[in-house]
Fold each of these.
Amino acid sequence: MIKYIGSKRALLPTITGLVQSLPGVTTVLDPFSGTARVGHALKRLGYRVVANDHNAYAATLARCYVEADRDDVVPDAERLVAEFNRLPGRPGWFTETYSIRSRFFRPENGARIDAIRDALAAKGLPPELEAVMLVALMEAADRVDSTTGVQMAYLKTWAPRAANDLVLRVPDVLPRAAHGKGRALELDAVEAAGAVAADLVYLDPPYNQHKYLGNYHVWESLVRWDKPDVYGTACKRADCRTRRSEFNSRRTFADAFARLLAAIDARWIVLSFNDEGFLDRAAAETLLAAHGTVTVIERDHPRYVGARIGIYNPAGEKVGRVGRLRNKEFLYVVGPQRVPAGLAAQLPNPVGRRRRP
């Protein structure tokens, strides 16, 4: 899957183990699905998953990894991957924007992306197969980009991986889950919560002011293929300035989160949050307590990659020190009763061991 800030890759064993421990769960709603990594893992375990995200690239990842089923799409995807991998490069809008005006991809890979994306658009594929192929292209581009993992900027010198040739691979599409076919939605999170009844809702909302659209604007443009006006050194989409979420503002987060909780129709809620977010632990527990009994599982975790790199000025000079390199990740479990007292000790804790900076 693509590199992604806030990814729950390291916490997946803890999250999936927690969900498996809760009784009566067959359907899970994920209103902030991001890369769909959690939904994909739960689908693998047999749960019916409904994954939602308001960004087009994330909804496409969910359509590939949650909604599409292997037998329905993989044979055609294998044929298309072989066909597209033979295409010669043809420079176009993507190359001009992300290889010439900015330096996210070497021009030869930018030209391959242009050629493959145009060919994909001309196919008029069914939505699930199209999503699988878009994810194949997104992931191929991610393997040859020149960033630290976010698209707020590109590296001053080319990353070694950027010299590799862009090659498509078929994504890891799973068979249909035992509890039924999944769905992918592209709605506001509160709207999605009100539209879908589930046994469990997994919440992983934005926790600070940094918008995922700005962090991954290249993928949004690659998926939409709307060739938008762009601005700045990073050639961000113009709508990065206007598309806003109440969950990205300290002033509006609590009210938006309260409306989200009120819209949920589920027996269980699992909230993934950390101690750098807009809500501290006491405030989160107070909001959640109105919807059931709250249990908190705490994990020690490395901070995001930017914190480990350090603080630099526009000239590329290191100008400050990061206060800490680790934070506390919390899993809040809300339901009709407390989870067993010893559950936290039983769950996998792959990030619990401290490492030296």
Amino acid sequence: MRVAATTTNLAWSPGAIFLGARDYARLWGTGTATALAVATRHGANVAHVESAIRAALGPASGLEVVGAPLRQARIDALASEGLAQLGEISTLLLTAAILAMAAALTSAIWQRRGALAGLRLSGVHPRRLRLLLLTEATLMLGAGCLTGAVAGLYGELVIDRYLEHVTGFPVASLGASLRPFEMLAVVVAMALAIVTVPGWFASRVSPTLAFNE
């Protein structure tokens, strides 16, 4: 059979074939249709056509009469719902990453109270300790997040090429968005903001704690 056109099917990964009613009946051995597209003439009243088709089908046909604008709106709504769910998952993963790194840094800072108390005993001002803790946390977060970002970009490149090869879906290139760098900055900034609270308390640890070590 002659191929009239090909297009990317974003709704169903295995793809779909559109046939005329005559070819469908010949190949499948039945003329019963599950969907029928009606093209109106120029200037026709679409609402009247829909009413006429609905009356001709009757209430027992099991088919629904839907105009092109409404059908397009439903497809867009379905796609938007899927993208919204992916966005929620992405937000949850980002939040979990921020909390996990903040908890790890908080635990590391809290376990070093004895060493910080020794610095206090040597005359180091709490403000200097806070600056020291902030510098260390920034270096640790920067190194960890940068490593994760590079690994994530590499994974995205591999998955994009796989999708493009297997499904034929159009995939945006890595340079099409600055979102990875934005997420890197957000994670580092939020984690540092959370760590400032235990860092402030740790910097004011009593110098007498050094004698317990």
